[in-house]
Amino acid sequence: MKYLYLICALLVVASCSSPKGEKGNSSEKEKVVNVYSQRHYESDNILLEKFTEQTGIKVNVVNAGADELINRLEMEGALSPADVFITVDAARLNRAKNKALFQKVDLSNSKNLKPQLLDTDGLWFPLTYRARVIVYDLKDVDPATITTYSDLAKPEWKDKVVIRSSGSGYNQSLLAYIIEAEGEGAAQDWVKGVVANMARDPKGGDRDQIKAIASGVGEVSVVNTYYLASLLNSSNPEEVAVGKSVGVIFPNQEKEGTHINVSGAAVTKSAPNKANAVKLLEFLTSEESQKFYAANSFEYPAHKEVPADSTVATFGEFKASGLAFARDMSLTEKAVVVFDEGGWK
Amino acid sequence: MKALSIENINKSFGQTKVLSDFNLKIGEGQITALTGESGSGKSTILRLIAGLEILDSGTIKLDNKSIEQISPRKRKIGFVFQDLALFPHLTVKKNILFGYNGSNAQARLEELLLLTNLNGLENRYPHEISGGQQQRVALARALASSPELLLMDEPFSSLDERIKNKVRAEILSIIKRLGITTIIVTHHASDAFAIADEVAILSEGKLLQFGSPSQIYKHPNNQYVAELFGSGIFIPATVNENTLNSPFGSFKVEQKYLPKGGTLFIRPESVRLGQKDEGHIQGIIKQKSFKGPHDVLLVEDHRQQFSFELETERTHLETGNHVSLLFDLNELIIFPD
Amino acid sequence: MVLTKTAGINFQNITALSNTVLGAYITNTLWISSGVISLSLLIGVGCAWAITMYDFPFRKQLEWMLILPLAIPTFINGIAYAGLTDYAGPIRIALRATPWLDDVYLDIMNGWGAIFVMSMVLYPYIYLTSRAAFANQSSQLLEASKILGATEFQSFYKVAVPIAWPAIFSGLSLVIMEVLNDYGTVKYFGIPTFTTGIFKSWLSLGDMPSAIFLAAILLLFVIFILSLEWWITRKKVISEASSSRALTREKIIGSKKIIVMVGVLSTFTLAFIVPLGQLLWWLNLSFTHTNWGNFIEIIGNTLTLSLYSSLIIICMGIAIAYAFRVLKNLKYIQPLSKLTSLGYAMPGAVIAIGIIASILLIDNELIYAGIYALLFGYTVRFFAVGYSPIVSGLKKNSLSIDDAALTLGASTFKTLIKVHLPLIKRSILVSLILIFVDISKELPITLILRPFNFNTLATNAYQFATDEMAPESSAASLLIIFVGIIPIYILNRSMRSKP
Predict the structure, then answer these.
(1) Please, which of A65, A290, C144, C433 could form a disulfide with C491 given CB 3.0 to 4.6 Å?
(2) Which residues of A touch C453 (CB under 8 A)?
(3) Helices (runs of H) and strands (runs of E) counted in chain A
(4) A139 pLDDT more than 60
């Protein structure tokens, strides 16, 4: 019985100490903006705090996976409290766009953003991007032998490729890019070639691929610059050593350019605080914020004038591909099917 | 203290008919035992009276008022359950006063403790007291709100043989002192005899016989009742005028209105040892076993084996001895075919 | 709820699905579940037997410490083991420093690894139920079996296990459900299963019909398991030995002592010490840049949610279980109450979206009113966890107790409050703790349904883990474990003391 008392006591304590999450208030008077975001980084939080300091507008955030958030937006429809939607993947932005979840707004900063990153209809705006690069074992691989993603499907890389599973959104986007650039047949061949070259079953995250190379399981992999940079800045010195053991190749420089993942933001169709939402987007695309991203998030800023300013800058300059692959959602869906058919786990 | 009348009640559980057109009248202040084999419907009657089961048809009247529409909560009936159903987490005191709503609970408690001789145990938990004490707690609890009728379901079945007689006597004296109308369900004839003013015998949902214990013992309505109440042996027989023909030969009986044929039932006390050659049965003792005041003899004459209970202490009869047995012809019971 | 959202089913997609990956989903799911079933049965029942039957050093401490892995979220255990064995993990660092062994490659991220990682955190369910069953068994049965010439192993599997089987199975069915709805571990380990398939169809392909098709197959499987459990426990006539002598534990010596102690100690080490050690090592690496100030609020959120939802589930559980007891004509539909367990087997994200859909149907304001949607989601998801201990607790109260209260004039409600609740308080405590621990670990529902600016320990750990920053996630992971340990300790004490 005494435990029941203990529980009651805990309950009282819990109720007293319950500031908890505030509800997304849609009242204009309170000066708020409600954000559904896939970006859950500490640096983003600092940036949003700065926004509140400057404008007095309070930012409410829900973080979750992009697909879950899109589903939630879709279901909530006109009743959604969300004003701004942020994800790290252009394909997801376009999916939401095709579902008519966004509204068009004019952003004075959009002219300052890299034009190839912009949405053709101006429904969403890029914030940052990451490159999907090939990393190789500095000891065993001559970087001159690889210039394209397709090179990974060549027989000489048999049992040397380590790569993530087809469930990874990054890989789905990459394959959609290949389908868009080279056609479905070429994409099927590429999948078959890479599957044949795999040193092990696909598994783990991007960092795990790099660690696998360091372990000698494979020699080459496809990873995101963001994760390589964060590995190089890890709190575990061994991980830093792992990051230093690989070199970076920006593939397809002679062709369409290296595949990138764009992180972007949009104002939702039903935004109850539209004015504040636009203010937030202007703030995030401003030169000041872009510099902050460049310095703190291991990403490439979307701003024309702002250079990369973190570890990723050490990887060198490169030509980034356009976003044609991301516009047509059916490409990503096709990519999933091609993966499944090719036996890419 | 009210009279109870059960009229034409019916009860089925699913496809099984448990009671059909059952009738019983119980006098005010009487202690009545319902007895029969398990499945005879005796417990169901108790539960119907208490309202724990719902009647299919018929009526139950307490003091000439139908009670079947009254919620079991308000019937003013005390119930002592077979497993006692004492609340294990409550003290004796809280168990007893659980349903008591009247004024001055403490005084009522003391009254009940005194009545059931439980003084000093009021702060104990049920598992801390003896079986007999638990029995009395259950009784005190059932009596706390001064019910008009007391129902007890197999109250002694969980008790040790050793303390059973003592507990039975205590309970009986409490009930007698209160003079409350009481129905006790038991499958032990000895319990029924020991405490009941009247006994109702049930089989398969029907009332076989209703009467005082001695009436039933001496004049059972049929073989089933005879066997249920006390031991004895059955012997097939035919009757012609005043002559009874049995496997042991014919002998004169004084009883009138005898049926033509049937079964002769002999209670052990109607059998005594006779002189050689004068007995109704002559035979050899095949087996002898000790059973308290009596011995049980398995006697074989040239036709059959019979089992008798006899006081043989002073006769020094042993297995293999020849024995001659006499029946008390005035106490013979004959069931018609 | 999710079902109402679909109109027709696209058979083309489903055919494509069955041609390509459905086979792999089925094989992997069956393989992983049967692996986890076998391993957690072996560990759970084995440890329960050793703890109940033998006396050896530290037995008393190990008795409750063996439950502790329950506090570790499966996903976190996966990350910890992957981190332990990967290139930058302590084992490989040590191996690299050793000549001859410097090139050893350890890989835990495969099917066998997943089976191991899941069994290590799920076996306590079986350990708890079978330990209780063994402890309640009459010592006379085992003595009889001994006298009849059975070896100890024969007594174990011919007498003890069959008698305890319904209890073991009830723990096992929880394990099966946990395995079926696991998403994090199998995805991280790269094993396509039904649940990852549901998410891929639904989220990547936007193909709700295929997702529902897969979910329906999963549900059929779960219904099959539940019916099996119902069928097994239906025939349970074995009563517990309430008054029989307490078991005297055998003081073991020699090789037997070594085997038993090695088995139990290595279980505890692998299931708890090792992942905890890895997390502590990470914490040491990330300690300086962890934002500790946030944690007070985050812990407060976690505790509040867990406590409120446990209480809601328990009140509902008591109400429903008691209704089934009082209203006898409801008995025929009682097996249906098993269906509430389906929520436990459904992937949390599916439930969350279903909750949004149904809340929008009821009252669209509700979803923005704080934590109600979360509480709703948890209730759907974890109802079964809290309901079953309450039902089995109520079953132990003899029916004549209700009759007694009734004839004494108590209302149905008074009987519940004054008689049943005090009698089943131990079961209530058990269910409270199980729900509490489960909710403090819960992730997908929390992620999707939480209000703005709301974090729990699980979302905090997940945030860093998905960003592949395992060291930074260790602080929250350790706090989840710590928050779980206290109630687990209480749980054990309450299960050990006799009523």
Answers:
(1) C433
(2) 21-22, 60-61
(3) 13, 9
(4) yes
